[in-house]
Amino acid sequence: MTTPLEPITFGERPLRIEDVLALANRQVPTRLQDDAAYRQRIAKGAQFLDSLLDKEGVIYGVTTGYGDSCVVAVPLEHVEALPRHLYTFHGCGLGKLLDAQATRAVLAARLQSLCHGVSGVRVELLERLHAFLENDVLPLIPEEGSVGASGDLTPLSYVAATLSGEREVLFRGERRPAADVHRELGWEPLVLRPKEALALMNGTAVMTGLACLAFARADYLLQLATRITALNVVALQGNPEHFDERLFAAKPHPGQMQVAAWLRKDLAIDAPTAPLHRLQDRYSLRCAPHVLGVLADSLNWLRSFIEIELNSANDNPIIDAEEERVLHGGHFYGGHIAFAMDSLKTLVANVADLLDRQLALLVDVRYNHGLPSNLSGAPADRAMINHGFKAVQIGTSAWTAEALKNTMPASVFSRSTECHNQDKVSMGTIAARDAIRVLELTEQVAAATLLAANQGVWLRAQAGDARPLPPALAAMHAELAQDFAPVIEDRALEGELRLCLQRIAAQHWRLHA
């Protein structure tokens, strides 16, 4: 009997990246903090705003226009209409739609921010946003159109609009009008109160949700790249002493030391070894801990940037109901996420470059120390017409080049918008989308190099010049054999590459964590 998972609670408790990932994958139930004191604290912000309206106070985005129109007063008789106008005129997103996993992460990030109680929204809004997550009602959100300051306005307008019964959602696998889904679930669409559309839209939820997913993918990719490297050390008859613990004590970057330790464990480096063929392997093997270690060492501060943003109030203005103050600032600016994602995509692209170089060694008879050309398993009488992994190596080179091209930092391409009111913007959402694309490409490189490494290990065994595989690698090799047969006669490998990518996406293989 399985133990029920503890629900993720939205409220005063901070969330971790792993919580967002579990929620995005529908692996865990959720709840909204509902004790009386918490509900009262949330309600107090909306009540304070209402009291200011009664006194005809000036509040940005409530009794004024938006952006450069903040100098335009909105008469009280039009204040109720302003939220609908905000999400309506921002309904101009283009590009692909965010997938279901990313959309859930976005909803989670927005809900967690609003749960701080300083955004001036009602409890009812939090409840409906949580109900969207619980019932898997997913707004269809175009991924393009945000400059990442003044928040993810355009993509988040699709959240505000669907909560109000407008636009479209994905529900039970079908694309449907939001109004129809509200009726089916017995809900009345929300009529957003003053500040509520702004609170929903004027934040960093899209870039932050994507950043959580990117972080989790990069963390697994780090472990997978280390395992692939170990397989390639075996396939290329590399020198395992490159990962000696005493060697890394002399340059003690913690992540670099961790990768070296994983390699020692995978290669059973403390076990007796045969005499070495050479003192030094090429850099893509010898320096793998140094390359992968940079990503390993960066994950802690990347986590800090992402989780602080996730657990922050990041809209404007901030409503301090306790002190009865409206604080106008710029917390919608996504600079930390922009920098984290610009950094992550560079770190990950370096992993692609490392694995691409390892694959280039595997297929080349000048450097692979006795493996067949292009890793073909064909017998001698058919070797001349078989080409093994030749095209896979070409594809890997293309994917790597594209990943490297996409490392141009988005954050330095700030554009002045809103009649120069938003004259310095973060580009955080573009950076996060770039990071996801670089991860996709690098996972393709990893899939190709993993299958090639596994083929190389098999070829060594066939030739009878391989030492027994260490336990971790033997288990991995056996598991891979269940889905990926050795390439003897040429076959199209697209289907197997795609299956390998599915395994990577599901984090199928238990690795080093």
UniProtKB/TrEMBL annotation:
<protein>
    <recommendedName>
        <fullName>tyrosine ammonia-lyase</fullName>
        <ecNumber>4.3.1.23</ecNumber>
    </recommendedName>
</protein>
<keyword id="KW-0456">Lyase</keyword>
<dbReference type="Pfam" id="PF00221">
    <property type="entry name" value="Lyase_aromatic"/>
</dbReference>
<dbReference type="InterPro" id="IPR001106">
    <property type="entry name" value="Aromatic_Lyase"/>
</dbReference>
<dbReference type="GO" id="GO:0052883">
    <property type="term" value="F:tyrosine ammonia-lyase activity"/>
</dbReference>
<dbReference type="InterPro" id="IPR008948">
    <property type="entry name" value="L-Aspartase-like"/>
</dbReference>
<dbReference type="GO" id="GO:0044550">
    <property type="term" value="P:secondary metabolite biosynthetic process"/>
</dbReference>
<dbReference type="InterPro" id="IPR024083">
    <property type="entry name" value="Fumarase/histidase_N"/>
</dbReference>
<dbReference type="InterPro" id="IPR022313">
    <property type="entry name" value="Phe/His_NH3-lyase_AS"/>
</dbReference>
